[in-house]
Amino acid sequence: MLRFIVILTVLIVLSGKVFAGDSSDVVWQKDINTGSIGVSISPDNTMLARMNRQGAIDIYNFETGDLIKSIDGSQETEISIKCYSCLDFSHDGKYLVGAKPFFNKNSRWVLGLTVWNTNDWSIHSSYDSLANSFQSLYALSCYHNSNRVAAVVGHDLSIIDLDKKKVINTFDPMVMWATDQLEITFDDKYFITTSSRRDHSDLAGASAIIDTDTGELIKYADGFPLKTLLTKDRLNIICFYKEGITIRDYTNIYTIKYYKYDFNTVRDAKISADGQYVVATTGLGLYVFKVGFWDTPYTYDSDMIQSVYFDLSSDGQYIAFGDPLVLKPRWETVLVDETVPSERIKILYCSPNPAIINSTIKIISPETIQAEITITDISRNHISTIYSGLLTPGKNEIPIDCVSLSSGMYFCNLIAANINQSVKFVVDK
After folding, report:
1. pLDDT exceeds cutoff 90 at 198
2. How does strand 181-184 pair with strand 166-171?
3. With a threshold of 0.85, does the pTM exceed it?
4. What CATH class is the domain 11-333?
5. Which of 6, 39, 360, 389 matches a 20 to 30 Å C-alpha distance to 181?
6. Which CATH code for domain 346-427?
């Protein structure tokens, strides 16, 4: 167990370019004020599901906004749903998994799981007591590459095989007290949990990274974060707090940047499927970051956004809120313009990252300049020189052959004139 240790902190007031959204960004919108707490887009971008606090679910045609199906909630129960990650489609779109109140064997209401078949909306399976626990569900998230769902129940983390209709594993990593947020990395290797609720446990108010196969606690941090994300390249940990955002280096656990909010608190946040962008909502608008460009956050300001819970489409072009509201923001107007040369030569990023066979380093140059690009290991030992020659004005792309590289972390280094820059990349075979 390794606590996050703050070695270096750079404080920046969260600011940058503000992009005002308008009606031209709206794909469709419904005027429904029923306290939506969950929203999910199907993997093929054909359906949108939303849930209210009574457990009622509406399924819409994602393209047109036409209502496909309404699933009634449990109006007769004595509880309202207080699960803040309560609705998700399976990775292949066969199932919709949602929170549902049950009257358990101890004669009290608890929050469990129900799984619906999306071909006819019949109930596939239900789980009112996961791993013999009579405590309530706090969060759920479907895997990205298999038909499994992870569920936080009390202080346990249960894994359900949706096809087999059974709980296949249960972990108790000792940091699950008060956990109410759950994410799974895109490679399904890690759970990212956040405990933002304050209770009597010393482990409440923590975020954790947990191995999905063993349940081993990899890292955790305290400080009552509202949401925690791990970038797709596993180089940065992003913690959202009431006062600001902390960007941490994953390997050395030091704080790279700290942004103080200048107008509102983040309520929910996600990483785009391509791993390039972090999007966070405040209930009044959005923060948009390009991964690696932490100095230039942008805000998407729109009075159309009322819900704090959202989902991103798999292609990254759409964002859906539980109002329900579907937007297609003009992201290209707020993101880093890689085609316009900056005042000095600069590494943009390596992609793909992590890499298996090959990757590409992207560099922007204001002029024709002699440069050398090398690969070093994490200890800065020279491995190879992949390019030596002229870079042209604008964007330059240099291939990186990863076939001979073992799995691990490396630096790609740019040496030109009086400039020496590096960017980390990961080989994951």
Report:
1. no
2. unpaired
3. no
4. mainly beta
5. 6
6. 2.60.40.2550
